[in-house]
Amino acid sequence: xxxxxELTDKLEAGITDxxxxxxxxAYLRSLSKLHQYSxxxxxxxxxxxxxxxxxxxxxxxxxxxxxxxxxxxxxITILAPCPYWAREEVEETGPDGQTTREQKWMKKTGFTTAxxxxxxxxxxxxxxxxxxxxxxxxxxxYEKLLSAxxxxxxxxxxxxxxxxxxxxxxxHAEKKITLRSGMSEAQTIKTLIHEMAHAKLHALPAExxxxxxxxxxxxxxxxxxxxxxxYTVCQYLGLDTGEYSFSYITGWSxxxxxxxxxxxxxxxRDTAVELIDGIESRCLDRPPPKPxxxxxxxRAPNRKKQTRTAKVxxx
Length: 315
Known about the structure:
Shape: globular
Number of domains: 2
Low-confidence stretches: 130-135, 243-248, 286-315
Mean pLDDT: 77
Helix content: 25-40%
Number of helices: 9
Order of helices and strands: HHHEHEEEEHEEEHEEHHH
Distance between the termini: 16 Å
Number of strands: 10
Largest sheet: 3 strands, antiparallel
Radius of gyration: 23 Å
Structural class: alpha+beta
């Protein structure tokens, strides 16, 4: 388990460092290509193979994509969940109000290492891609892509007038997204994704056209999350959004704890993945990924077969 400990230590340091430099834009570009992996594993893949664009296990390349790993290639090490059972002392209160402690078998999750390979390390059947020309240009399959995004939006999308300099807006009271009329195809796609991220992550409840409550996150954090989702999905689409300046990330992350930083990364990653999976299923005629069934075990496994697994932070 020493290798697992090494990787997780490097990961924890990397997440904090991520927000203190221009590594953040590089991380989002990697996330756009490796969206099916956790934030932690994206960082680990990027550390070992900076140019990675699509990775999978040795067997998956053959079974799912009709490709095989080239002879002599060295794999990329990531962390994989490893469920196990352990006995723990549990405190329970009976009907009489008396508290008792007893040993029970509890299902836990540790981590082990797994090996994947980048597409550049394989050869075989071609992999279909989506793409666009530029932020100010046209988008290949624009109507189909725009339709797919509108169907994925949690609220209706309309075109209309907005204040000068504003490309789009999410309206909490009316629960709708407004896009400025007359924008380029590329700008329309990018703006819609940004506003959809707001609608998914930062919507406030409303009744009778009146907004209730206030935001838990400040405006800077909300904009960072929405723009990060838009940047990630646009990178996946091949949309050249330009070299965005991420200098404000330093101020946003200053003084924040690991847990808070990781929370925003998880929000960004989960929302981007949801949109990318939806776009793939609608524009590339791919079925959406099936959820992995969670099987409930009613009895604890044979105690003699129990093995110890190192517990590490959730990745």
